[in-house]
Amino acid sequence: MFATRRAYDFIHQVIAEENLNVKICAALPGLTTGYGPSHQATEDLALMRAIPCMTVIDPCDALDTEEAVSAIAARDGPVYMRLLRGKVPAVLDDYDYRFELGRAKLLRDARQRAAAERAPIVPR
Hints:
The chain has helices at 8-16, 44-49, 62-74; strands spanning 23-26, 55-57, 79-82. With 124 residues, the chain is α/β, with parallel strands linked by helices. The chain has a three-stranded parallel sheet with strand order 1-3-2. It starts with 7 loop residues before the first helix and ends in a 42-residue tail after the last strand. The mean pLDDT is 83.
């Protein structure tokens, strides 16, 4: 919430419009915080995705986060990455997974159905 809502104009006008090499990593995303509604940033992904030149990362687990950090450090330009709160579960360890910026991964062939999930939902 504090990394997006309060800083939005600065991020949009100064960082993204100038395509500066700035990395923003924000903790306590969505409803995962225990600090109540004043600290819940449920719209952070929508806000950051609406900014030109901004790359947005929402890691699934600890492995995804670890590999994403290296990828965003190597990427030129502004990046917003959401960090999960507390002990982050291992989800992708059972798969031959490697993080690639801008690529979705097929973890398991369901044949009968398809599902696309966002990070905090995947472990459940």
